[in-house]
Amino acid sequence: MPRVSDDRLAARRREILDGARHCFAEHGYDGATVKRLEEATGMSRGAIFHHFRDKEALFLALAREDAERMADVAAQEGLVQVMRDMLARPKDFDWLGTRLEIVRKIRSDPAFAEAWASHTADLEAVTLARLERKREDGSLRKDVDTEVLVTYLDVVLDGLISRLATGQSTDDLHAVLDLVEDSVRVADR
């Protein structure tokens, strides 16, 4: 029996993640049944769960990817830029509806809440580090603790995600993000 190459295994894993992302976004966590995951990925249950222990492990792998991607942008350009990217390219953020499912699972499943917390810690850490750098270069206000600013930006991010995921108007959100940026900067800049 021929062995499957590492490249092919990585490609299959990527196909599963891409299909599962769409399935979770469309149907939510509970609605993403194994049958729907099979249809969305074009792979059998055995192929899917060869790569991922279970549905939760698959969901968390997607969450990890999203958190890492957001952390990369946040580290370079700031969390507000992540939000601007969401507005500019909503198709790249089809997982937003899944974020609502994450909140529900966090409230009802302590093990999931613990796993999710470890994934979001990276985004918070890079946001905090970037804000500290901005504070050092004099462009970030100093009258509010940096940790409070991280929480503030995270709350704004959650609100933006809820608004986008529920299909509400985004007409005024660019102006809202301008206001958010202005609120954390030093007034004279």
TrEMBL record:
Residues 33-52 bind DNA. Gene3D superfamilies: Tetracycline Repressor, domain 2 (1.10.357.10). It comes from the Bacteria. The keyword S-adenosyl-L-methionine does not apply. Keywords: DNA-binding, Transcription, Transcription regulation. It holds the Pfam family TetR_N. Residues 10-70 form the HTH tetR-type domain. PANTHER family: HTH-TYPE TRANSCRIPTIONAL REGULATOR YJDC, TRANSCRIPTIONAL REGULATORY PROTEIN. This is TetR/AcrR family transcriptional regulator. It comes from Gordonia caeni. The lineage of its organism: Bacteria, Bacillati, Actinomycetota, Actinomycetes, Mycobacteriales.
